[in-house]
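Input.
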Amino acid sequence: MSSPTAHLAPHPDRLLPADPTALGIARRLYSAVRDLPIVSPHGHVDPATLLHDTPFTDPAALFVTPDHYVTRLLHASGVPLSDLGVGQGPLEPEEAREVWRRLCSHWHVFRGTPVRYWLESELAEIFGITVRPGPQTADEIYDRIAERLTQPAYRPRALYDQFRIAVLATTDDPTDDLAAHQALVADPTWTGRVIPTFRPDRYLEVGAPAWSDDVVRLGAVSGVDTAGYAGWVEAMESRRAYFKAHGAVSTDHSHQDARTDPLEAADADRIYRDAVAGRSSRPDEVALRRHMLLEMARMSTEDGLTMTLHPGVRRGHHGPTLARFGADTGHDIPLRGDFTDPLRPLLERFGTHPNLTLVLFTLDETVFSRELAPLAGFYPSVYVGAPWWFLDAPEAVRRWRAAITESAGFTKTSGFIDDTRAFCSIPARHDMARRLDSGYLAQLVAEHRLDEDEAQETAVDLVTGRPREVFGL
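Output.
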């Protein structure tokens, strides 16, 4: 059994190659990118956190309860989500402490996972924790973090500066008035950059229980009559323009599949009106969603918003958990990926359009070299998104980089995205990517496939150049 007082000290060479020759090169490459600003073009941090600069309440609320990466594995290890504060709102002090104890007493279940890497980095490098979490150290660590959270240096804005974040994108509903974003821009004491992202999924999922109400609200907010298909499209275009005017650079789409089969306008209008009236069939509803995803690409060619697509997830896989705790609570499960034929209608129309940027993400490793890399290796508009969610782990990132680079190179990738709600994990996640890319490039140099000056230029470009170019930053 582990010592209750084992030292917590992340190794300076973690994730870098073990081979001495490659290690020396990787160290030099990593030193060139380690302290570069963070460009985060896809994430889920609430902008109100930075607007109000309200101190984080407790360690559990910061590290555990909102982070489904953490709670899902604890749940898989027998800890009920109710015991982790999920879906319960603010916790009482003793409840928060007990949640933290649950994490520490199950620290061993995170061995070998990227979550362990992120948490160790956060604890040691942000909060100065020097003992490993465990049942005997839980309260000591909790008290240390809680005390730090009362200090000005640990409020959200101070941490934003400490993390060297240059750009932070949020994910927002199309009907959001973006008041928090507007207030941040108008605040003379705020010097950061937080931008919204247009996420219209729920308005495309025709036939969902709340869909009819959603499109009515969309029409009301946009000032467009959404009784018919043409109004639905116009309302979407209007809200995209609103988002762009308030700093948005991209749209974000996630559906069960990536099909983009077109419909005739008359068929689209018929299905839409049937859906509004509650008499549409499921096949028609799916067909209209697929057609509307194609329309979103057309809109991107007109307004220039980068289109990100991450299909292939069975949302709410466990119905009872969804009903009790809601969405995004750890029970979304990947599906098989399929891009080549599903995206062909979209790419035949817009794949060579000079104003389209399409970033493709996947949760299925089998499509890395079979589909995504070849698509990005031909179509000027297509870029391969960095591994995310279940794949934002060291070995998966290494496999992705090897599979993608041979067909698409480095320049047709997106740069790293952290995709997180856990604010303090942002620097740890980006640091992981920088170390892994430094290691991959170092191996190319060690094998005499790349000169070191080129490797360093590439390492820097992956951190700053790729995300800025791909997302129009």
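The CA atoms of residues 229 and 270 lie 8 Å apart.
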